[in-house]
Amino acid sequence: MGKLPYMEALLGCFVLLLQGYVVLAGDIVHQDVNGPRRPGCDNNFVLVKVPIWIDGKEEMEFVGVGARFGPTLESKERRANQTTVAFAEPLDCCEKPRNKLTGEAILVYRGNCSFVTKANVAEDAGASALIIINNQTELLKMVCDENETDLKIGIPVVMLPQDAGQSLNQSMSKNSHVSIQIYSPKRPLVDVAEVFLWLMAVCTILCASYWSAWSAREAAAELEKLLKDDSDGYFTKEERHSSGVIDISTTSALAFVVIASCFLVMLYKLMSHVFIEILVVVFCLGGFEGLLTCLVALLSRFRWFEPAAESYIEVPLLGPVSYLTLAIAPFCAAAAVLWAVFRTFPFAWIGQDILGITLIITVLQIVRVPNLKVGTLLLSCALLYDIFWVFVSKWWFHKSVMIVVARGDGSGEDGIPMLLKIPRLFDPWGGYSIIGFGDIILPGLVVAFSLRHDFLSRKGLKAGYFLWAMLAYGFGLLVTYVALNLMDGHGQPALLYIVPFTLGTLIMLANKRGELRHLWNMKGGGVVFSSEPCPHVRLEQEEQSSKVKS
Q1: How many helices (H) and strands (E) does the chain have?
Q2: Helices (DSSP H) in 419-465: which residue ranges?
Q3: How many CB atoms are located within 10 Å of the residue 84 CB?
Q4: How far apart are the C-alpha atoms of 522 and 370, rounded to whole Å?
Q5: For residue 273, how many C-alpha atoms fall within 13 Å in the half-sphere facing its CB?
Q6: How, if at all, do strands 178-180 and 246-247 pair?
Q7: What is the pLDDT of residues 260-272, one digit of tens each?
Q8: pTM (2 decimals)?
Q9: Closest among 371, 416, 449 to 21, alpha carbons compared
Q10: How far apart are alpha carbons 219 and 230 in whole angstroms?
Q11: CA-only gyration radius of the chain, Å
Q12: In sequence order, what are the residues at sequence separation of 6 or more whose Cβ sits closer than 8 angstroms to the Cβ of residue 74?
């Protein structure tokens, strides 16, 4: 199948613009260095689950946030006591309640006095827990005022959003028996989703690398055959490089930081439901092209499909297109459209991953780094880009721009579609483990280059570079997930760990073997297109030249 020029340009833009991050949805522990911290008021802010029981039946569940003060919350649901809920009188709990409390969880409203005052009053009145209802849908971090000294609070304090207070008020006004549990479950150290996501990323690069290497070897063999059969012994430069492959130059590698940063800031500033819809359309176009390219390449390997793959028809605006491509295209388009329509459903991640993986493989097939110099420059720029927009951007924008864009904050969506994602099956908080396209594409360009070099140099696995580059990438990605779990799920720039392992391994190994200069300055990714004629033609030319001189 011939590549469509506009789709090549689109996929090339994906390499530059859709760069990566690994973020785990819904951080559970929030460390705040700005809020006052002192003995008795030094808890981390943790999300809290509050299931609601009405007349002995669990009806709903809300998520709140724990206070800076008070005891550590129970992490196991089975150990959390089921406690009856009562309203405070007065509702702000700024003075001793008029109603008698005998171990109930007291429900109060925010305002009129400090959070610590409410907690002390509730504990002195006999409450077993304090539930503060916020006056807005967002949750507020409850801290201690600087002049407060009575911080020995022995009951848990949790804030719930405004809609939770409305639901509780409606249930209690009907004289129903309402009780709650309060607990803050911890995420598992390792979720099976992370294992599968790691396998997906590694296998995607593995498949793309072998496809790229096989294509390069076939192109080299075809070129050698044409050179031997060429009566004149020369090919034009355009003929020698017309392989449908885009080689990244040093200029484009340097421009990556500026272009990708501008694109990311645009996403951050214009993030909305409409803008997400535009990204969905772009992703569907790329996913359609990726799925179509991969299926055509796969099916054309079977003899049953060879006639359709080798027969072409002229299509207006598109040029020659194989019958196999025309037959498969409607199914690929239907897959992309179905994902777009049902992308908010729980199972939509499957379609997103299929489209994303085929898109990544296609990009790694079309876009290549010609040598280790360009690969080093590209990955170094990407590393600086990742670090800046995950960490340093907080100083200017007061938020991590990369993480905000990844989560799709303010768009009403679950995030941008340029991610691979798997639901966290054994996580009590749910959510997804995700990895950005850039964390696969950018290192994958260098890994694929190493395998092309090994194939064309006829090196085995141990004697080549691909095995070690692949192991280094897998280990770097593994370290990324370890860092994510150690940081309580806070977003991490994956390239911070992947780039040093991958690049460092290749550079040190090449230097040890004395091949660093060769890999650094290669042209054409290992396929050397000589401007000289074939030996037999050169011999004939020399003989003719001798006759002329004589």
Answers
A1: 18, 14
A2: 438-456
A3: 14
A4: 7
A5: 2
A6: unpaired
A7: 888 888 888 887 7
A8: 0.81
A9: 416
A10: 16
A11: 30
A12: 80, 182, 183, 184
> Does residue 71 have a cis peptide bond before it, meaning omega lies within 30 degrees of 0?
no
Active-site entry in 27, 191, 353, 386: 386
- Out of 27, 353, 414, 439, which one is annotated catalytic? 439
Closest residue by Cα to residue 517 from 375, 370, 378, 371: 371
In one-letter notation, the amino acid at residue 4 is: L
The CB density around residue 29, as the number of other CB atoms within 10 Å, is 15
User: Alpha-carbon distance 345 to 351, whole Å?
Assistant: 11
In angstroms, the CA 229 to CA 217 distance is: 18
Give the residue among 206, 320, 360, 337 at the shortest CA–CA distance from 284.
337
Catalytic, 386? Answer: yes
Q: How far apart are CA 85 and CA 171, in angstroms?
A: 11
Q: What angle do CA 107, 113, 117 make, to 5 degrees?
A: 70
Task: Enumerate residue ranges in the chain where pLDDT < 50.
Answer: 1-6, 8-12, 14-16, 18-33, 233-235, 237-242, 526-542
105, β-bridge pairs: 85, 129
- Known active-site residue 145: no
The pLDDT score that the predictor gives to residue 484 is: 80
